[in-house]
Amino acid sequence: MKWQGGRRGGNIEDRRGMSGGQKLTLGGIGGVIVLIVGLMMGGDPSQILSQMQQGSSSSAAPESYESSPEEDRLLSFADVVLVSTNDVWTGLFKAEGQTYPEPKMVIYREGTQTGGCGYGQSQFGPFYCPGDRAIYLDLGFNKELSEKYGAKGEFALAYVIAHEVGHHLQHVFGVLEKTNAMRGKVSEREYNKISVMTELQADFYAGVWAHHVKNYSNIELTYEDIVDGMRAAAAVGDDHLQEQAYGHSSPESFTHGTSEQRAYWFKKGYDTGDIRAGDTFSDPSLQ
């Protein structure tokens, strides 16, 4: 993946030198998204809920913090990737006579307060908060991708960022609000299916970005990068994560989709480049 020299300035808010309060809340769709991401990363549901519901508040305060050369490189990389997603989606929206509302990205360490999704923690993995239209990323996750999940190559992190941008698109389109409104109205098993469809659509949007990136930015991708993206998608499949953690998987509890499904929908987005081809909610195989 050739990204050095790519355009920067993608609405990055760097909080690595801040220590936020720990007021944990679980409200609205934002809390649901954070919880789902935590589950995707293999977290214990009861522990995650406890952490999100407990704690005390304090104001953020600056700390002395020195970034390492590796973090500086990752920050530049995340910035370039976010700008490229903005360029792609701005171009695609413009072609339809619409304006794309760009999200921001918050870079933090360990934990930070969000704008409507409670207290985000790095153990949840990267997540999107619709309350402030922001993607939250601890740069240390890049090491986890490689060492814990076996998703190697620079494009693995690019895929993750593009996936979270996919959730931003769902927020813009009103999809997240509709899916969250179903919570409590259907059984847990049925809601898990809705969650899977939501996550697979975000994977699809990541693939659409990869398809168009060459036309809207100077990032250059090879087919090996796309394969890395498929591997990254597969690495965070529910079946793979559960088998890693427990030695078996329970399909009825899946919230993100299997490794095969995640790789398939990312690849479908890349192959078609057509945002209209990503209606996971109408796909018979996911019902």
From TrEMBL:
Subcellular location: Membrane
Recorded topology in the membrane: Single-pass membrane protein
GO annotations of cellular component type: membrane
Superkingdom, taxonomy of origin: Bacteria
Pfam families: Zn_peptidase (PF04228)
Chain intervals for the UniProt region annotation (Disordered): 1-20, 48-68
Segments of skewed composition (Low complexity): 48-67
Keyword Transmembrane attached: yes
Transmembrane segment boundaries: 24-43
Keyword line: Membrane, Transmembrane, Transmembrane helix
PANTHER family per UniProt: INNER MEMBRANE PROTEIN, PUTATIVE MEMBRANE PROTEIN YPFJ
Protein name: Metalloprotease
Originating organism: Sphingobacterium allocomposti
